[in-house]
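Lab notebook, bench 4. Still working through the backlog of constructs that have no structural model yet. Next entry is a single chain of 192 residues. Request: give me the structure tokens for it.
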Amino acid sequence: MVNKRFINAEGETTVTRPDGTVIVSEKGPYPRFAMQAPFTKRITITTPNGLSGVITTEKTVELAEASDPLSLLILTTQITTNDRSSESVYDATKKTLTTKSAAGRKSVSILDDKGRVIQQQVPGLAELFYTYDSRGRLTQVIEGEGDQARTASINYDPDSGYVAELTDALQRTEEFTRDAVGRVLKQKLPDN
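Model written out:
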């Protein structure tokens, strides 16, 4: 059993799965780079019993200079699944990514110069802070601030680079011994 795939002259792709599910996807021009970097702007999924769903993606940008696609100020992405929409807004100046789910839940992620999340804010929850080592690996997650802060940490084997220890917010440490390709050979739990 194989998928059947057809691409028409407009670039619309139709995939028919062995069970009869049909997936139609349509590409669109990315606002900054046009069709040099197309993205999937619409997907329609139809099941054999006639149920269907539509997912659409819209992207808009604000540039400092209209002729310079690298002068990004704001990138907004809106994804609509059937009639429920979620949105993410990246602000290049503030280095923030603000998301709003279809259910209305919001979060703000603050990024460093390398695009890594260093702080997350979700209304009603304690803030999260992330720390990375010189190789860009996550080493610490702190939830909350001051006396209420809870810290979890990750230590890596200096030779292989694989995770060697995980320490949770209650300071319980789990240790790992791995083979040359990173498979866990031995795992020492906090209570043994």
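Notes after review: Residues 146 and 173 are 22 Å apart (CA to CA). The chain has no helices and 16 strands. Flag for follow-up if needed.
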